[in-house]
């Protein structure tokens, strides 16, 4: 099965199926997609996604992004507005408290997101919708603008919850770098027709190992275990986690 789906009008669209978990299962194909902008999907791409089983689209972008670059609509999936930004809690302060020895700037942003109450609420919505995506031959797609930061955090939370090891999660995250020739390419995808750029769409740095590692360390520092984070921050208790694994792994 292809991991990278080169569909017309989509940016950084990838399959999350096929990854092994720590209990000997694998993530099912045709259940989870991660992506960047999908505002320019063509009829051919929509046909592919309909056959793929797409039913849920979770949009992590800000309200202004969603208005300016609205997702392509269709009758076979529903779009859920779920902005990660702006952060409204104290995630930035919590991140600062554990960074005296220094993480990358991007890593600290990621830590702020997973520790912030608003950021947590956004990913709670993702997990809630994942629980509703329980029918066979139905799938869910979550995305932001470039499919790197907000989507990358979502993917690492989902994969970790389903039992994928951190090395594999990191490799999936770093695949974003292969999706763009260079930063100039990324910038071009974010420019509007007048050459103006929405700076909130993406932190303009390449995906890096330290950023992803910093997320796990922040969660461990404040929540002790990842399962405790799922329970306390995202309202995914042991019963819901078991249900998620039954839906998404085999």
From TrEMBL:
Recorded family membership: Belongs to the protein-tyrosine phosphatase family.
Biological classification of the source: Bacteria, Bacillati, Bacillota, Bacilli, Lactobacillales
Classification via Gene3D superfamilies: Protein tyrosine phosphatase superfamily
Name the record gives this protein: Tyrosine-protein phosphatase
SUPFAM superfamilies membership: (Phosphotyrosine protein) phosphatases II
A molecular function GO annotation: phosphoprotein phosphatase activity
